[in-house]
Amino acid sequence: MSPARQHIEESELVSRLRGKDRLALEYLYDHYSGALYGAILRIVRKEDIADEVLQDVFLKIWDKFESYDSTKGKLFTWILNVARNQAIDKTRSREISKEKKTTGIDNVVNRIDRSEYLEQGIDDIGVKDILKNLPEEQRFVVEHLYFKGYTQSELADEHNIPLGTIKTRLRLAMKQLRTTLGVT
Asked: Are residues 108 and 35 in the same domain?
């Protein structure tokens, strides 16, 4: 069985990434790049920019992996946040107009040729199903912040919701998601 097809438990993967094991990074890329690419593309909306951001994400993961704390959450959550933050930073750069917002989570077509990749997409790992368990107002906040690339302030301003309400809904959603996922 090739290294890319072998299953590596998360704890072993984390340990190997901390040890700067290049095969572990290759495994991480092979299994998660599709989901990360989809999240990035939803934010930046341009394939060439999404490709660039994805490369930057994996460089950042490699260079900053020591900042990952497994007691605070799952590896996928951490790398998804790295990807999301890189994509948002890119949209704020001079290369991309600030006026362009991403389209809805259900309206975006993931343009990866699935036959060439082994990774799981966000839909495949059940993120949408997990979000369905949240109350509507909490789900709305999570989707806009994590999948549409809004900041808390932008969401508050654009949808005329007090910033404190946004923060409270996000905190409650994260608490419920941690409970649902069994993360303390």
From this structure: yes
